[in-house]
Write a structure and sequence with these properties.
alpha/beta, 31% helix, six-stranded parallel sheet, binds nicotinamide-adenine-dinucleotide, 267 residues, 11 strands, elongated
């Protein structure tokens, strides 16, 4: 990639920057999220954007640039090979790319077992608001008979439901299971294909795709006589950056696999 970031270096350590500055490499740097990450890193005095890679760039540039933390916003098809390269090269990872099934997470864990000092943070959503929505949804889950999730995104998104919605469904499902709750009530016998959404861990998830949207999620809880709605709207990709930067600053001191931002937020 020929980055639009003049400070990007594919070579040795730059002359400026704090001694303890973290050298960051962005994979997927020409993408919508990658560009934002490059910008956010460049604006952070304690971080150095040491490498910005996109599809045509060899991953070896991460090592030659002395990158210690790689941030990956690419595609589910390629991200696993990036994990393999980074872990074998001793590079910590912050991953926003979606598509991490249980099977994939198991593969990452197996790779990490060979490199126990390395940290990998995989978060389906780096926005603090979305993380708090998930936290509150988990808290509310045991108090409501019904629950459905509606996620709404721009129409260029490749996967559905979103990783955030799947993660939310899993957290709600776990909370309901711990509270010994059965499935939400639903008398539907006849439904057009897809009308009732996708079933994720026993929770119905509806995916809306429309021009103008960015990333939005609603969790609708229901009981007799009351409806309780949690909603979060990411209106701009900059909303993800404080979470990405928190993960970048935390990952070197958080060895092993961390799922979601929640463990980094405290109470
Ligand atoms: P995008 O299509 O705009 O960008 C992806 C970039 O990856 C492209 O520039 C593409 O050329 C590049 N790429 C593809 N293969 C590559 C390879 N082998 N090496 C290097 N670069 C490669 O997509 P986007 O909107 O930036 O989203 C990227 C990913 O992040 C998606 O999986 C998306 O769902 C996810 N996402 C996560 C969050 C979060 O908070 N976790 C937020 C938004 C998007």
């Amino acid at each position: 990639m020929t980055p639009s970031h003049p400070t990007v270096s594919s070579g040795r350590a730059p002359e400026s920057g704090p001694v303890s500055a973290v050298r960051v490499g962005v994979i997927g740097a020409a993408g919508r999220m990658g560009k934002e990450v490059c910008h956010a890193v460049e604006q952070s005095p304690d971080l150095i954007l040491a490498a910005a890679l996109d599809i045509d760039d060899p991953l070896s540039r991460l090592s030659s640039a002395g990158v210690s933390v790689a941030v990956d916003f690419t595609t589910p098809e390629v991200v696993m090979s990036h994990v393999e390269f980074c872990l074998d090269s001793g590079i910590h990872m912050v991953i926003g790319t979606t598509g991490f099934s249980e099977e994939r997470l198991g593969q990452v864990q197996t790779m990490l077992d060979r490199h126990p000092h390395i940290g990998v943070i995989i978060a389906p959503n780096f926005s603090f608001g979305a993380v708090l929505l998930m936290r509150y949804a988990r808290q509310a889950a045991a108090f409501f008979e019904s629950v459905e999730i509606i996620e709404m995104h721009h129409p260029d998104k490749l996967d559905a439901p979103s990783g955030t919605a799947q993660h939310t469904a899993q957290m709600i499902s776990q909370a309901r299971h711990e509270a010994h709750m059965g499935p939400p009530p639903d008398a539907t016998v006849n439904a057009a294909d897809g009308a009732r959404g996708a079933m994720i861990d026993g929770v119905t998830v509806h995916s809306v795709r429309a021009r103008g949207l960015v990333a939005h999620e609603e969790v609708l809880f229901g009981n007799p006589g009351e409806v309780f709605t949690l909603r979060h709207d990411s209106l701009d990709r900059s909303s993800f950056m404080p979470g990405v930067l928190l993960a970048v600053r935390s990952v070197e001191s958080t060895p092993g696999l961390t799922l979601g931002l929640e463990p980094l937020l405290g109470h």
